[in-house]
Amino acid sequence: MSAQGATGDGATGEAGTAPFTKTEMMIVAAARELAGQRVCFVGVGLPNIAVNLAKRTVAPELELVYEAGVFGARPARLPLSIGDPTIVTGATAVTSMFELFAFYLQRGLIDVGFLGAAQIDRFGNINTTVIGDYARPRTRLPGSGGACEIAINARQVFVIMRQTARSFVERIDFRTSPGNLGGAEHAERIRREGGSLGRGPTVVVTDLGVWHFDATGEMRLDAVHPGVAVDDIGETVGWEPKVADDLRTTPPPSAEELRLIREELDPGAIYTG
Amino acid sequence: MDAGGSVPGKVTSMRDAVAELVRDGDTVAIEGFTHLISFAAGHEIIRQRKRDLTLCRLTPDLIYDQMVAGGVARKLVFSWLGNPGVGGLNAIRRRVEAASVAATGGPALELEEYSHFGMVARYTAGAANLPFFPLRSYFATDLPTANPLIRPIRSPYGDETVYAVPPLRPDVTIVHAQRADAAGNTQVWGLLGCQKEAAFAADRVIVVVEELVAEEVVRADPNRTIIPGLIVDAVVVEPWGAHPSYVQGAYDRDNRFYLDWDPVSRDEEATQGWLRDWVYALDGRAAYAEKLGEARLNALRPSAAPSGVVDYGAYG
Fold first, then answer.
1. For residue B285, what is the DSSP state?
2. Is residue A11 a part of any domain in this protein?
3. What is the pTM of this model?
4. What would the pLDDT profile of A211-228 be if each residue is shown by its tens digit?
5. Cβ within 8 Å, pair B142-A67
6. Are residues A85 and B193, on separate chains, in Cβ contact within 8 Å?
7. N or C: which end of chain B has fewer CB atoms below 10 A?
8. What ipTM does the predicted assembly reach?
């Protein structure tokens, strides 16, 4: 593995010419996955900055859709919440939330739904509701928001999250948003019965690497970020992970990608600090 | 205040509107998705020490964190429980998470949770007088187990199964808006959220506005009217009434407030201190705006970006 690259947030890597953080690498890797996509449903937090970066780099034609009721947003600054006024000014359309969820999402017009997660399992099932027992939770998380219906109705789902032993778990405590359930066959049947137009999760981008899903519906590590040793991946995953035979190393962020993040998208380092 | 007709003279004070229209035990919806959240109404409800409310909102946001801390709520009906862009809602979490509930010995706050589309569909069913609303969500999730009111139903026209949610009919819906006339005809631009649905679903409606305008202003642009005076009980004129949320074209979201609330709300004593200083000690929104100070408020004003003008045409 490359000895270069990001070794921790706050610590900087030295790939290419510019040092970068693990979070910056994660955002850049996620943005690159959006190349060629047309209509993207943007989630709160990290998805927000990744999608806005993609729009400025690999996917200038990307239509940004916000659950707050905006199609074709042209945010002039990084939206701090997904209801920021900057997503309204200059947008193609502002809709009621009913229209957005019913006509845009449920109608099948969304190519990519971008979600975050507190816990994920090997089949891409997501928990954002509770840690512990539902009725007496150890930690109460935000809940679904629009994630549950995005996971079901978007044509495909991208996940962006930090990868740790606490987040990549054998069993999630609560299934908020369905992934490939108990495997591809099971998921396919349930999606068919539910009239779902989507095919579920296709990419998971973390601060350590990039995962895609194989024919059985399980995620497989296809790339590690610069400076990440594949031997170190095991301790951040709560199951025996599948690793691609031709495991790649993610190309480090370009100077332009870093400039966009630091100067235009997140100058206050709110997401990347 | 007669909900039966579009009669003028619905303009009243926040104190009177809340005293008359919000009752102990009510189901209350203060809607507005990030945009146009009536913090002014929420604070007045705290100040009048209403009790046992069921509070409904897609995103409880800081306003319900403050109201729960103020002791007005028995139950929350919601779909996303967080401080947007910052973290958790700590006062609410203290009344939900096992360790802190056990430590205080108090009853846990009751939760009834949906997804965003589920909540929007509930208001829509309430507004349209339907017994339920169907949606393609919840398949193979734990949400219908956590909330048995989310139920699978078979299509009467085929083999498909979809999920149904029940209508939500608040006793009172409160919305903030850019402007209304004295009869309560209310106009909004920017994010529309589900205020229209929540208002039509409710038994009583309070509209809070930045600006009271003449009827002719409304009639000059009828496409922008989301709520007719027909269903409005009270109009309250309260500039800055949505702070620290925002009003498109008038003021920006005060993100510093959302960040500052996190450490305050992590500590119960600090939270109660904040309520004393910013709610109980003040007699209304004008005093609140004065306490915030002109410099802070002025920094939130955006520069202009007016829409083009459309021509409705004069006929006859």
1. H
2. no
3. 0.94
4. 999 999 999 999 999 999
5. no
6. no
7. C
8. 0.95
